[in-house]
Design goal:
It is built from four helices and nine strands. With 233 residues, it is an alpha+beta fold. The protein has two domains: 13-160, Coagulation Factor XIII, Chain A, domain 1, CATH 2.70.50; 173-233, no CATH class. One 2-acetamido-2-deoxy-beta-D-glucopyranose binds at residues 182-183, 186.
């Protein structure tokens, strides 16, 4: 098939705006034929069939490294329990504004929320060992459309976090609190207070959000930007 230069450029910009999960190893490439990041819940990528081929992730939380292509995107990280999860009802990271392109890494993703979510599902202590689950990452950008990617994991308390050398945000990559539309005008010059844990990751556009820390002080949603993308969540 021969693409005109125009179509090629359009595809190029579409692709660069997508994202990938680098760790834990994703289900499979969502850039491959027959897949699409626009498809809920996991980009039409089939779940990992071989149980030994899932990344071991600690039930007290693990690392998540993304390669992101947007200038910014509202980002969510959820977990669904089971070998072929369809119900991503544990929210590790509520919407935050992931800014910048390149590598984005959370060392210990939504720690307290994971522990609480597992507990709610009756999974504590030994019971959680070996339980299969799927991490779902959702990014919603300027157009309001949602992009999905998933990574299949097995809970294992011996699983280690990524080392600092493997888990660092690119320069100018970080996250900021989502602001309410009616407060936006007031936030200029008074960035939201940053958590001590992530203050070094503050971007030039504002203070860092304490993602992965309980609460996080994340504000409201800029409804106008979200559009139809929210409906599927
Ligand atoms: C494990 O997963 C990777 C990535 O999806 C794949 O390339 C590989 O073939 C799988 N290995 C097995 C044994 O299923
Ligand atoms: C999604 O996957 C199914 C099963 O592999 C396939 O039939 C379908 O065409 C895929 N959808 C898209 C939009 O690629
Ligand atoms: C996994 O879930 C998907 C979506 O619900 C379904 O199409 C598929 O058949 C399931 N696979 C298995 C092995 O159950
Ligand atoms: C980020 O975006 C800029 C401008 O679009 C581009 O020049 C740069 O290569 C991108 N960086 C990465 C790591 O994708
Ligand atoms: C989430 O779904 C799992 C089953 O997939 C269920 O066991 C658990 O109770 C649910 N948790 C909440 C908080 O609804
Ligand atoms: C957890 O990981 C260790 C080290 O890879 C392995 O020996 C053990 O069997 C795993 N436990 C479960 C329940 O999968
Ligand atoms: C990356 O940025 C986010 C948002 O500011 C922050 O929570 C996280 O801790 C940073 N990652 C690392 C490895 O510092
Ligand atoms: C996210 O941050 C970028 C860069 O600061 C900003 O342009 C964008 O409006 C923010 N989006 C939301 C929904 O807060
Ligand atoms: C914006 O700031 C002004 C002055 O501090 C204050 O009076 C006003 O209530 C603020 N508006 C909003 C929506 O927070």
């Amino acid at each position: 098939m021969i693409f005109s230069p125009f179509v090629f450029l359009a595809l190029l910009s579409l692709t660069s705006a997508h994202f990938s999960i680098e760790y834990p190893y994703w289900r499979g490439s969502s850039f491959a034929e027959g897949t699409s990041q626009w498809i809920f819940p996991c980009a039409n990528v089939t779940e990992t069939a071989d149980p030994t081929n899932r990344t071991a992730w600690s039930p007290t939380s693990g690392s998540l490294r993304l390669h992101v292509g947007h200038h910014w995107a509202l980002t969510y990280v959820n977990i669904g329990l089971g070998p072929n999860a369809t119900n991503f009802n544990i929210s590790l990271v509520d919407h935050f504004n992931q800014t910048g392109n390149g590598t984005f890494c959370l060392k210990e993703t939504g720690k307290s929320k994971l522990v609480a979510g597992l507990k709610a599902a009756g999974l504590e202590g030994e019971a959680v060992e070996g339980v299969q689950a799927t991490l779902q990452v959702v990014q919603i950008s300027t157009t309001g459309g949602a992009l999905y990617n998933c990574a299949d994991i097995t809970f294992n308390s011996t699983a280690a976090l990524l080392a600092d050398s493997e888990c660092a945000n690119s320069t100018d990559v970080g996250g900021i609190t989502v602001v309410n539309a009616n407060e936006a005008a007031n936030t200029t010059g008074t960035p939201p207070s940053s958590s001590t844990a992530s203050s070094t990751a503050a971007t030039s556009s504002g203070a860092a959000v304490g993602i992965g820390v309980a609460g996080g002080g994340i504000g409201g949603i800029l409804v106008a930007v979200l559009g139809a993308g929210m409906a599927v969540l």
